[in-house]
Amino acid sequence: MSFTAWYYPFFLFVVAALFWQLPRAGRWTLLLIASYVFYAYWDVRFLALIGASTVMDFLCGLAIAGQRRRPTAVLALASLPVAWFALVGWLMPAHRESLRWLPLALAAALGFVLLYEWLWRVGDTNRGRRFLLLHVGYNLGLLFFFKYFNFFVDSASVALASLGLGGDTAVLQVLLPVGISFYTFQSIAYAVDVYRGKVPPVERLLLFAAFISFFPQLVAGPIERARDILPQLSEPIRFEIRFVHEALALLLVGYFKKLFVANHCALVADYFFKGSGQTSPAWVLLGTLAFAFQIYGDFSGYTDIARGSARLFGVRLRQNFRFPYWATGPADFWTRWHISLSSWIRDYLYIPLGGNREGPWRTVRNLYLSMLLAGLWHGAAWSFLLWGAYHATLLSLYRLTPPLARLEQARSALRPLAIGVMFLFTLMGWLIFRAPSMSFIGASLQSLAGLHTAIETVGWHGPLGWVALHVAPLLALQWASRRAGDESALGHRGWPLRALDYSMLFLLVASSLVLDQEFIYFQF
Amino acid sequence: MHTRLLRRLVAPAFFASLAVLVLIECLIRITMVDFFSGRYQYGFDTQSGFVETADGRVNFVRAGGRRFYPQSMTRAKAPGTFRVITVGDSIARGASLEEAYPAQFGKRLRDQGYHIESINLAVPGFGSTRQLLVLRRALEYHPDLVILHFGMSNEFEDERDEKRAAAARGTHPRDWPLKSYLIARLHEYKIDLVTPRLLPEKIRVMSALDDAEEEASANRDPVRVQGWLRRFSSIFDRSLAALAEAGVPVLLIPRVELRDESPDTRLDDAGLARLLEHHLGARVRWLDLRAVFGEHPAIELFSRDRVHLHPPAHQVLGDALAVLIGQWSREPGSTIAQALARSAAPARTQPRQEPPAIDQSNEKR
After folding, report:
1. Active site (annotated) includes residue A492
2. Measured between alpha carbons, how far is A170 from A13 in angstroms, rounded to an integer?
3. Can you list the residues of chain A whose pLDDT is less than 70?
4. By CB count within 10 A, which of A22, A172, A395, A410 is most buried?
5. What is the phi/psi pair of residue A216, to 5°?
């Protein structure tokens, strides 16, 4: 189910109304059912995957903390997702074809049960670490299989073909479950935190399942930490009307960013990126600028809708964006853009690798490893890897070049220059990110340098006006919320001004309902 | 205490915002009644565009999706007036009221001493369904002759606008926002004015904001075309039945378009003439545009889309219609002859009657 589906607001408010009528334990169950319904709307088979991930993470979390479950219970739990998969394939003719994967699913479940039992038997030394490795290995295995399998098989086919060894390139195409990157990373963070002793393991399966599948942030984050969310889900809270007020304000801002800003900028961005890249310099800049605001409006809009939806249940999700295009340098940018991912990479990869504590070259290595992972996390494509490498290069340059480092720290008249320079670097990054091919990037860069004649016949003045028309209200919103520190918060303004804000936002959203486009970050 | 409770339950900002929006909506509904009357019926509202005034006149206005040229006539036909109403689409509508052929043949016949009232009720993009609605309404004003300029090129538009009108009437939650005149108007303003002005056609078509591509694809779909043909034939029969019931003679003009073939076959009516064969009679005549335009150079007659007519073509057509109506009027016993004779007789003794009042805004298509 998408947040932009017409039935989503009904779904959300009905679930919220039921939620507050139930006792605490009933609330988790309701949230779990609602989350599974929400997820199953894309594909009922996805429930088998998230179920398997949940069961495995739950058992590993307990094992890391030294708690063992009986083999029969482990076997029963591990069988549940496989049974669901088989049931769906058996009952629904449309999914019958996927039954060919059943032996693999069965083998994975049995393999997990055997490994689980074996790890309990091999001794107490480093048991927690071994279960952490099992947890991370299984999660990354699932992620690799569902997200990168096609990419590597296709890339291998292309490489073999280029060597004249290509045979039949028809391979099994694997369906990409939406949101898998988000909940896999959230789950890994949970296991590592349990291992580090930062959070106790969750002992109730339903509560843990509700934590993993909490529908407002299931498919596109923010990637939450167990220590932030679990207490909010498990502590008894009383309904307060401010939850509804805060939720409505966030939902309104989120829908504004998605429907008004992102969907309209998408028209210009799509036109540019569906071309050849061989165009005028103005179109390269305009197309990339349009995409910059499309992806920002899309993803930060999604986050705001997620935060607003969660707030209806009394849950406060973390801020994922903080005025990212006002960053003065790459390090600053990554504290403002997709904060939940960048902080995840910082906490669970960059710092464990040594961070910046082991000299400049180790720091550069760590930056490259971290940013390449950030790129690869977005998807299995060379453009994402290149984008990660590009940002690693930027981070390294700013860190190793004193003038750039000073520019990033500028607090004086140089600050606008720093923001402008970083924004141009960011645009360059988006060009790489969205480019459909390497040749497109090359053609666009050549166009930008005026190295070839533009074949584009469509003028850029009108589309520039179109982008400006749809970005200006966003900038006005940011101006209004600049003092709150939260780019989506208007609560600090007096109620008459807020009334005006809400009216304008509502009208802009309502007049944009015709453009129906899916969220970009669902694919990651 | 109640106030405090209310303030807790309803945040002042949301309440004020809601109040402002409701107030604007109410103001719009009160002050812009005419503007919104039938507006979101896209021509399917039976009354739109016909405004009867207290002094016994009927004004034809642009309203409810009916882009009529501003014209006026008396509700009850003045004695001795020959009233002709033309129903069609953008081709009959012409680039301006004065240049279009209904005004041209009206002028020719007035020059011959007849009291002619020629009303052009052609609307761009109207297919057979909406033309029938306009025709039925027009028949209430007792025309002496109806000119039905018909073709099958607007069935896609009829279908599309029927869906839009249904959405405006619909109760599905997806349609709820458009129930508000404020939102509907904002949306319309954006789609009709802002989008075409800022986004080039290529981008609009690619983003499905412009349905030209969809229309082209529908035109290539034999199943849809067959469906249109069946509907068109049925509505064509109903139109002629309505005219027969009202006892009004009709002059049918099948649409033609320019093809690339040899000069003999360069004008194609897509087989429309065949539809007429079993309908023709004393009250039903037709004008073959292939014959009318046959001798003239195509470049002077057709615009670049090979369908719409340049002003010289409207003049040629106006001449041809004046001749045809004149011939028809000379046939003994025909309704046209009697009506035209009545309209001609007083002209010899009374000052020539003025043509119908025409708004001189020279509105373009």
Report:
1. no
2. 46
3. 149-176, 453-457, 514-524
4. A395
5. -60, -30
CA distance B211 to A493: 43
Question: Best of B8, B192, B199, B211 to disrupt the A interface by mutation (most A CBs within 10 Å)?
Answer: B199
The two tokens of residue B89 are 């689409």
Which class for A515: exposed (0-12), middle (13-18), buried (19 or more C-beta within 10 A)?
middle
At which residue do the structure tokens 């469906």 appear?
B227
- Which pLDDT band holds residue B363 (cuts at 50, 70, 90)? very low
As a whole number of angstroms, the distance between CA B42 and CA A335 comes to: 51
- Nearest alpha carbon to residue A151 among A171, A128, A132, A135: A171
Can you give the pLDDT at residue A170? 46
pLDDT band at B356 (very low <50, low <70, confident <90, very high): very low
pTM, to two decimals:
0.81
pLDDT at B1: 47
The single residue listed with the structure tokens 């006026």 is B72
| Residues belonging to chain A | 524
Tell me if residue A361 falls in helix, strand or coil.
Answer: helix
- The ipTM is 0.74
User: Measured at the alpha carbon of residue B214, what is the angle toward residues A466 and B44, in degrees to the nearest 5?
Assistant: 90
CB distance from B14 to chain A under 8 Å?
Answer: yes
Catalytic residue among A135, A338, A378, A391: A378
Residue A115: name the closest of A177, A80, A187, A63 by CA: A63
With beta carbons less than 8 A apart as the criterion, state whether B179 and B285 touch. no
Greatest mean pLDDT among B1-5, B63-67, B312-316 lies in B312-316
**Contact (CB, 8 A) for A265 and A293:** yes
**Nearest C-alpha of chain A: how many angstroms from B17?**
4
Give residue A517's identity as a one-letter amino acid code.
Q
- The secondary structure of residue B334, as a DSSP letter, is -
Q: How far is A247 from A311, CA to CA, in rounded Å?
A: 5
CB contact under 8 A, A510 and B180: yes
